[in-house]
Amino acid sequence: MPLNDAQRIRFFGDYKHIGDQLQVTGVFNRACVEHGGDVDIHSASIAIVTAGYATTETVPFPKIVIGLVLVFLASVFGLIYYQVIKKSDG
Fold this sequence. Notes:
alpha+beta, two-stranded antiparallel sheet, 2 helices
């Protein structure tokens, strides 16, 4: 991709951002000689179809409760297991 096209991209997708959606026109290479036989696309032009934006990820309250209950149950079962092993070693 030419540098001037790459610089037009404002948002790359990650956990804190929804990335720009692009329409890429170019040449598809099943085995690119320039890049050691890798599959790639050499872009001729890009168009930003939808602009990206910052986002926040929230964890729903029921998932937090379920997670805490599972941690509690694992702790209880771990203590019970430890007590059974301790008694059998005697």
